[in-house]
From TrEMBL:
This is Cyclic nucleotide-binding domain-containing protein. It comes from Methylobacterium mesophilicum SR1.6/6. InterPro entries: cNMP-bd_CS (IPR018488), cNMP-bd_dom (IPR000595), cNMP-bd_dom_sf (IPR018490), Membrane-Transporter-like (IPR052706), RmlC-like_jellyroll (IPR014710), SLC26A/SulP_dom (IPR011547), STAS_dom (IPR002645), STAS_dom_sf (IPR036513). It is a multi-pass membrane protein. It is found in: Membrane. Keywords: Membrane, Transmembrane, Transmembrane helix. The chain crosses the membrane at residues 28-50, 62-79, 85-106, 118-141, 153-172, 211-228, 240-258, 302-322, 334-354, 374-394, 401-422, 428-458. PANTHER family: SULFATE TRANSPORTER YBAR-RELATED. It comes from the Bacteria. The keyword RNA-binding does not apply. Residues 643-730 form the Cyclic nucleotide-binding domain. It holds the Pfam family STAS.
Length: 765
């Protein structure tokens, strides 16, 4: 019966007391299990980091880890009051920390410093500085709400790297559990000895049967600790594996008649810690004797250490969110972990943070309350203050098996994730995994970064840099021209190309733009035209470019000089504009910069019209002749004269104003008029520009209402106007002429509708 069942069993005091007792017992059990798991991790990681020449410094390392754990737990209790979170050290990061500690010890040995009392404090200071840097990164990511940026590494690279770390954990676990410096070589030697006996190669020395037994026991415990909790998802499974391992080893030792001292000498139990309290002077107290030059050779390892810790923390938080079906504030967790590691660095502790397994155990058993955390904290404090002699009873195969289980978890994660990987993703993951396992975590991380860059470059290059390619016939400027002029532009519009660029331009995709220009200018493109006259490059959707892209544009400029076409750059952002200016790209007379696409289209159209001999904006189009040409009928100026009002406008004069009564249309016989809309709190918005031979305000004549825009003369203009009263008089006096005018009006409206539809189709492509 669950706690909820008991509490609802009845209103009596007995039921309430029973429920309270059950809750308390579950909390105590949860705290005990979490403590057991954390102690096993602590001993395993201390054996991993402080091994070989650093073995005599292990007591100081355990002291630092216990003190840091207590300080970090208090931080999480203060900052994460809404949910109980268990803290622990990161196994994947401990592998890198072990490499850092070994590298510092080797530097000291090369300098002639071998005394453990001198080496230990310096190694702890180095570990503390590495953890302090990690804590600062954690706190910064959380404060800036940028913790998820750590997931920028592609998933295959991430899984491959962690799988490689898993192989390193497997090797380290067997090393610790069997007390073998080279477990793989020892196993190969045992295999060769079994196959060839004394005839085997002399390089393979026979392995001690006891060591071989410890290897098997370590692997067996690791497999059970990994597999059984997954097979039987119950909170008792993992503690049962630990307790069973303890029982089996100690029963075996008792059967062999080995006491604790003999078992430790034989490699079955971990080395004892000094008796008495483990309280030590924090590593920060030895900072004055630390030589900063020791940090330089290990900086790549520290960077790897930080990245691994950040990645593991994110994976743990996301995993617990899924398992507990509740949301955590990832950034707040990072802030808490950052502060905890900054405090832990004072003692020289490895990196720690939100732990997945022990947190789930606390919640699944029912210890997800403040009391469970305090009980765990009290147990760790007791080990620190009163000594950890009991830890000496921990079997080496159990400490090594914990690392083996952790390594198997990383390898299994790669196998499970690989089901959804593509073949090339699997290959990348295996390459990163192999590099990490063979050459260490730092080299593996660097290989992963290189692979991530290659993945990004190759995948991003698949996104076309040209979002859209149009011709001047498909996309016109906002200038409204006379029908015959517009027709000439449509015919010559294929000589204008508009390239809408997108994304970030770099060495892979920028060359595609150059190749397209070469094809356009030589007639090798699908358009088949080699008479390119104007190339417009629209940077509106371009987020940036690198120096190699500027080289591609310089080559385009050289091509423009050879083939005689202009290159117009539009919508350049401030950064790109500075890059173009610094590269002196516009020193080429064929390359020019304009503010907008419309300005570039206007310049391209003026260029094409000037080359076809059209007067452009200086042309004159009398109204009567224009109507006669459009309709193919015989009407003259004398027919329309009684109904038209002629106006001459100076440059800057207003033809009609936004908001005025709309009761007339105007035909522009000479000059240029711009149509602008006034918007509150913003500069006037230019809608279009009209030239000679165009109609303005025709809808107003038909519909009435108010003017929706203002018309301003850009140059000296001559316009003729026809208002509603004059049209009514024309219909009464000259119905034939009124019918002709209405046919003309229908053609004008139809032409503008066709242009609008064409523009809409282009924008929707």
């Amino acid at each position: 019966m669950t706690t909820a069942d008991l509490s609802s069993a009845g209103p009596g005091s007995g039921g309430v007391a029973g429920a309270a007792t059950l809750r308390l017992s579950r909390t105590v059990v949860a705290a005990a299990v979490a403590t057991m798991m954390i102690v096993v991790d602590l001993i395993s990681f201390s054996q991993l980091i402080f091994s070989g020449p650093l073995a005599e410094c292990r007591a100081a390392g355990v002291s630092a880890m216990l003190a840091a754990y207590m300080a970090g737990s208090l931080v999480f209790l203060a900052l994460r009051r809404d949910v109980v979170i268990s803290l622990s050290f990161f196994g994947a990061a401990a592998i890198v920390q072990a490499a850092i500690a070994a590298a510092v010890a080797e530097q000291l040995r090369a300098a002639g410093v071998t005394d453990p009392d001198s080496v230990g404090p310096i190694v702890l200071v180095t570990c503390g500085l590495s953890t302090a840097i990690t804590g600062l990164v954690f706190a910064l990511l959380g404060t800036l709400r940028a913790s998820l940026l750590a997931q920028l590494l592609p998933f295959p690279v991430l899984m491959g790297f962690l799988a490689g770390v898993g192989l390193l954990l497997l090797r380290s676990g067997v090393q610790i559990g069997a007390q073998l410096a080279d477990p793989l070589g020892a196993l190969v030697g045992a295999l060769v000895g079994a196959l060839f006996g004394d005839l085997g190669p002399a390089a393979f020395a026979p392995i001690d049967p006891g060591a071989l037994g410890r290897v098997g026991l370590t692997l067996g415990i690791g497999v059970c600790a990994f597999y059984l909790p997954r097979r039987r998802a119950h909170w008792t499974t993992y503690p049962a594996v630990i307790l069973t391992s303890l029982l089996v080893v100690h029963l075996g030792l008792a059967w062999q008649g080995l006491g604790p001292a003999a078992a430790q000498a034989g490699g079955w139990l971990i080395d004892p810690l000094p008796p008495g309290s483990l309280l030590r002077v924090p590593a920060i107290g030895h900072l004055a004797s630390f030589d900063p030059a020791l940090m330089l050779p290990i900086l790549p390892k520290i960077v790897t250490y930080v990245v691994v810790a950040v990645i593991v923390q994110i994976l743990y938080v996301v995993s617990v969110e899924l398992d507990l079906r509740r949301e955590f504030n990832v950034d707040r967790v990072f802030v808490a972990s950052g502060v905890a590691n900054l405090l832990g660095s004072l003692f020289g502790s490895p990196v720690m943070g939100f732990d997945r397994t022990s947190t789930l155990q606390l919640h699944n058993i029912g210890g997800g309350r403040w009391l469970g955390r305090w009980l765990t904290l009290a147990a760790m404090a007791a080990l620190l203050v009163f000594g950890a002699g009991i830890i000496a009873l921990l079997p080496r195969p159990l400490a090594g098996g914990a690392l083996v289980a952790l390594g198997l978890g990383h390898l299994t994660n790669l196998a499970l994730a690989g089901r959804a990987f593509l073949r090339w993703e699997i290959a990348i993951a295996l390459v990163v995994c192999a590099a990490t396992a063979l050459f260490g975590a730092t080299v593996g991380f660097l290989v992963g970064v290189v692979m991530a860059m290659l993945i990004f470059a190759v995948q991003y290059a698949q996104i076309p840099a040209l979002r859209r390619v149009l011709t001047g016939a498909e996309r016109r400027s906002s200038v409204i021209r006379a029908p015959d002029t517009a027709e000439r532009l449509r015919a010559a519009g294929t000589r204008t190309r508009i390239y809408a660029l997108q994304g970030y331009l770099f060495f892979l995709n920028a060359q595609a733009i150059h190749r397209r220009v070469v094809a356009e200018s030589t007639g090798e493109s699908t358009a088949g035209a080699a008479d390119l006259r104007v190339l417009i490059l629209d940077f509106r959707d371009c987020v940036g470019l690198d120096s190699s892209a500027l080289v591609a544009f310089r080559k385009i400029g050289q091509r423009a000089e050879q083939r005689g076409f202009d290159v117009l750059l539009v919508h350049l952002g401030p950064t790109v504009l500075r890059q173009v200016a610094r590269s002196r790209l516009t020193a080429n007379a064929r390359i020019r910069i304009l503010d907008t696409l419309d300005a570039a289209l206007r310049e391209a159209e003026d260029t094409l019209l000037s080359e076809t001999g059209t007067a452009g904006t200086d042309e004159v189009a009398p109204f009567a002749r224009h109507v006669a040409d459009r309709l193919g009928c015989a009407v003259g100026p004398a027919d329309f004269a009684p109904y038209l009002a002629v106006r001459d406008l100076a440059a800057g004069e207003t033809l009609m104003r936004q908001g005025e009564a709309a009761d007339a249309l105007y035909f522009l016989e000479r000059g240029v008029v711009s149509i602008e809309m006034s918007l509150p709190g913003r500069p006037n918005l230019r809608l279009r520009t009209t030239t000679a031979g165009t109609v303005i305000g025709e809808i107003a004549l038909v519909q009435g209402g108010r003017r929706t825009a203002t018309a301003l003369a850009e140059s000296p203009c001559r316009v003729v106007g026809l208002d509603r009263a004059a049209l009514a008089r024309m219909e009464a006096e000259r119905p034939d002429l009124a019918l002709t005018f209405q046919r003309f009006l229908i053609l004008e409206l139809a032409g503008k509708l066709v242009d609008t539809n064409r523009l809409l189709e282009v924008e929707l492509q």
